[in-house]
Design brief:
With about 400 residues, the chain is mainly alpha-helical. Helix content is about 55%, strand content about 5%. Helix 9 packs across helix 10 and helix 10 packs antiparallel against helix 12.
Amino acid sequence: MDNIVGSGVLAVVAGAVVAILAFVPFVAVSYRRRGRLTVWRSLLWAGAAVYFWAIWTYTLIPLPDSEVYRCAGVNLHPFVFVDEVRAAVAASGRYLTDPVVLQVALNVLLFAPLGFFLRVLGGRGILIAGLVGFATSGIIETTQLTGVWGLFPCAYRVFDVDDLIANTSGALIGSLLAFVVPAQHRGVERAPDAETPRPVTRRRRLLGLVCDVVGVWLIGVAVAVVVQAVLVLLVGERLSFSTDQVASLAGTIASAGLWLGVVLATGRSIGDLATRVRFTNGVLPAWVARPLRFDRGRGVRDPRGAAGAVVAAGLPSGVDDRGASAGVARRPRTDRVDRAPSPGRRPRGSGESLGRPGPTGAMTSRIHRVLHPCCDGGECSCRRRRLHPRGTRRPAPPSTPRRRNGSRRLS
């Protein structure tokens, strides 16, 4: 019982590590192939990661102790388990609780999720499920037969052809059970509405924040581990300073530098790119807005400023549901695939900003509309870029008769 629980805990921990490492790419792929990230598919992929490790932990672990190690036998005759089940049931009279019956049933159930995941997540049919189940079971049985590929002098578990048959049957059954999932939720094909613009909700912005935090942390930890390993291997004990502080500083600089480069180049963070969120209709030029946006998100890169990271990354504040990183003047977040500018606003690329318009900007616009009545009708002949939308056609001036020398006649 302890071995079963230990193998399960080890599979869950290993699956969680894989899920964290693949979180940002998984979010980015989901938004590009399906236009959103659903709880249903997220749980399926997390379960697939745990199941992948469970196959190996339950079949190869625990490893035998060298003091009590004994070589196991080999069974190369198929369908021997049929006679064994008949004899066990005839002797005990139990069909569901006999150990021999349970062993065969567990071998089938262990590979049923493999066929299920291959059809639901991979879009593969029953033939591929059978081939993958047979190949995976063959690798496991060969690993046991060779004593973990020479780690032990002989096989520490029985190499059984019946296990190959039971495991392959389980994969086939799992592929058939996957038909209970609706067809639109199976496979990895691109969804027809993947490019349909969707509202930027609070959950979507929070997901972008989580991508930023996870990405910064992973890059910082990876760089810190590499730097510390290099220092220890090259210099060793001759160091007169702590390698932990140097490695931590290197990780912080690397993660902050990467995020700064991405924000300056694209105007968005890694989380914004993953969730396909962009900023539109700002009044500040890009070379001003992008460094300010990076400065607003410094709490994400500094663990000591984690409380300020939530506000800086754009969590909702105010009635109009825009975040603090959205700018200082008309800077809403929109879907990346929504390329058409909203009416009355400038198209993308005309400027950037980092917050909401204050009363001073609103008063300035109101005064300017009074001085320039042509702005009230939606078409403006004023060329002041920071106060008026571009893209509207300037009304043609009334024609006046010209003299022969080209000058206008004054009426």
